[in-house]
Amino acid sequence: MTTDALHVQQDQPPGVPPLYLTGERTLPDVPAENYWYQRHLVVYQWIASRVGGMQVLDMGCGEGYGPAVLAERAVAVVGLDANPEAHEHARLRYSRPGLRFERGLVESHGEPGTFDAVVFLQTIEHVADPAAVLEHLRTLLTPGGVVYVSTPNRLTLAPPGAEKSDNPWHVKEYTAAEFRALCASAFESVELLGVHHARKLRAHELALSLGWDRLHPALRITAPFYDRFTAAIASSDFVLQTGALERSLDFLAICRSPTPRS
To answer: Exposure of 173 by Cβ count < 10 A (0-12 exposed, 13-18 middle, 19+ buried)?
Structure first.
């Protein structure tokens, strides 16, 4: 397999153009990317279990797998992305009743008071004016609606003491306190959860603490082991929880405004 083949989606349906990894978005069907894909997928699955019967907008949906997951439970889902290649891929690959894809900018797209839930995952770190984007997302909600926002934890993504990681697509990365304050600037109620390793990934963390990183190079099994290990990671190898936010991989903010009284 060539280097390019390692970074392009494999086994796409007929007529669906594959996407390449750029570092800006996460893709399914790229074996080397499976850890990141499953880490994002678990959040979509968690949200999907809470949007049954709702009208949902997924802002910055990328390849389209997220809206497809949400559409398994929601009554209608719109997946929005500005990138023409991602939009075309999503439109061709994911087709089911109640699911459609649109092109547009997260800063301005959408009609006020239209959606019961707005999903905005792993994107706020990419925008120049995140507070304005959150205010815009708030306007799109029906009364009592909810906005779900996720972002990586700077403390576990960037080197110690650094202001951000080396990801060139990220404008700003957040600690838990910074992210909570940002979301609270637009919403009266903000609940923060963290994504953590579970099951085999938690066991891998333990192995690393016991010296696995010294052992596998010495045994010359690094590539064979991680080729199999990475491909076997599932969304169930991650868990969302309220505690230990400073050690979490990503944050998920559940943002609500008060339901107007009748």
So the answer is: buried
Report how far apart, in Å, the C-alpha atoms of 185 and of each of 130, 172, 182, 197 are.
10, 17, 5, 30
- Helix residue ranges, H only, 14-160: 34-48, 65-70, 84-93, 130-139, 154-157
Q: Quickly tell me which residue has 């957040």 as its tokens.
A: 174
Tokens representing 112 are 């006020």
Position 5 confidence tier, pLDDT thresholds 50, 70, 90: low
Contact 122, 26 (CB under 8 A): yes
**Burial class, 91, CB count within 10 angstroms (exposed 0-12 / middle 13-18 / buried 19+):** middle
Give the distance, in angstroms, between the CA of residue 68 and the centroid of all CA atoms in the same chain: 13
Q: What one-character DSSP code corresponds to residue 122?
A: S
**Tokens of residue 188, six digits:** 């009266």
Report d(CA 99, CA 3) in Å as an integer: 34
Cα 80 from Cα 64, distance rounded (Å):
9
Over residues 166-184, the mean pLDDT reads 95
Would you list the domain boundaries of the chain?
4-8+28-197+239-256
Whats the size of the chain, residue-wise? 262
Homologous superfamily of the 4-8+28-197+239-256 domain (CATH): Vaccinia Virus protein VP39 (3.40.50.150)
Averaged pLDDT for residues 86-98:
95
The sheet carrying 238-241 orders its strands as 99-103, 76-81, 55-59, 115-121, 141-152, 250-256, 189-197, 238-241
pLDDT at 110: 83
Residue 3: pLDDT over 50: no
| DSSP alpha helix (H) spans, 79-237 | 84-93, 130-139, 154-157, 176-184, 199-209, 212-219, 222-232
CA dist 52 and 49 (Å) reads: 7
